[in-house]
Amino acid sequence: MKRNDRLLLNVIPPVINLNLGKEHRSINMKSWMKRGMTLGIALVLMLALTACGSAGTSKDENEPEAQETAEIEQDIYLTLVNKTHALPDGWEDKIQLLDMKNAYDEDIQVEKGSYEAFLALRDDLLKEGVDIELDSCYRSVERQKELWAEFEAEYGLDYCKQYVAVPGYSEHHTGFAVDVCLIKDGELIYENDAMMKETEIWKKVHEKMPEYGFILRYLEGKEDITGYSYEPWHMRYVGDPAIAKEITEKGLTLEEYLGQVDPIPEEGAADVTIDYGASELYSQEDMEKAVDLIKKEFSTWEGCELHSIRFAGDDCNSADNIRWMNELKPGQNYTQCIEFLSDFHSPVEGGGAWEPDQEYKDYQWYLARTDGGDWELVSWGY
Ligand SMILES: [Zn+2]
After folding, report:
1. Domain that holds residue 128
2. Which of 6, 43, 197, 210 has the most beta carbons within 10 angstroms of its beta carbon?
3. Ligand 1: centre distance to CA 54 (Å)
4. What would the pLDDT profile of 112-168 be if each residue is shown by its tens digit?
C-alpha cells in the first residue's frame, strides 16, 4: 500500500514516540499541521468517492491472503507483559501488525484487532468533541532498547525507571497497547505534563474505552501492582468488551484480573536497570545468563544496593582480555569474554571494602566461557 493510501486509510495522523526530544517533536508538529490541511481535503475526496468510508475494513494488497483471514484467538489478547512477565517467544508470528502513520507522521505499527477497536473508539469520542490520536503503539524489543538509551540520555535514569520498560518487558511489545495524544482546539497535546492536566477529557475517554475492549492499564493507586505511575494515555486492548467492562467496573489491573500479581522488585538486586546495549556477538539470552551470575555475586555483598548493569560492548571480547581471563584461571581454555559495567551504592554505615554511603560508578565485571561452555564470573573491580 502506498504511503498516501495509508494516510487516507488512517484518516487521522496517529501519534508520537515518547522518546523523541522536544526539538524533534516541534519539527514534526509543523509538518503535522501542514499535513492536516491536505489530509482534510483528501479525506473529503475519499468519502465522496467511496461508498463505504470504513477505514478498518480496507485491505492491504501486500499482505498475504492467509494472514488476512487468520483468526486471532481471544486468549492472546489477555497476554500479560509487565516488569515480571517477559514477552513470550515468537510473538510476532502470532499477531498481525498493520503499518500506519502516527500523529507526528511517523511510521508505526499496531496489532490489527486493537487498531480496528481504536478507530471505533475514536469515532465515538469524536461525536462528543474529544479527539484522540495514535502516539506510540507497537515497539519491537530492539526499538525498546533504543528508547531506553534515548530516554536515559535526555531525562536520566530515575525517570527511565519510572516510565520506560526494560526491553522485553514492555506491554508495547504486544501490539495491543496504544498510547494516545489529544487534539484540543486544533492543537496537538502530546507532552506528558500537558496531557496530565486534561483530566476532563481523560474522564470521557476512560468512560468509553471498555465498550470497545480497552482498559486503562496503569491506574492511579495501583502503582505497586503495575510497577508504573498513572498514565491516562496508555490503553490496552483486551479483545472482549465484556472483559474490559468487568475489569474497569471492578477497578482492577490486568494483573489482578488474571490472578498474576507478583511483587514488583523494589530496592536491592532485583530492581536493577539492565542495558543489554547492542551486540553482534551475544544474544540477549547469552547476556541474561551472564547478568544472573553478576546479580548472584552481588547479592552476597551485604548492604550494597545495585542500581544498574550495562553491557560494555563487543570490544571487550578481545584477544588480550581472553588471554588475561585464562591467566586468572589457568587450565580453563576460555575462548570468549564478556564485560559489564555497573553502578551501585555502598552501605550507609560502611563496611566491607567500601566507603560508607557512596555511589560507585562503572564498576567492571568480567566473565568468560569455553567453547560451548557456560559463563563463569572471573574478575570484578575497578
Ligand atoms: Zn504506553
Report:
1. 3-54+77-258
2. 210
3. 26
4. 999 999 999 999 999 999 999 999 999 999 888 898 889 888 888 777 776 778 889
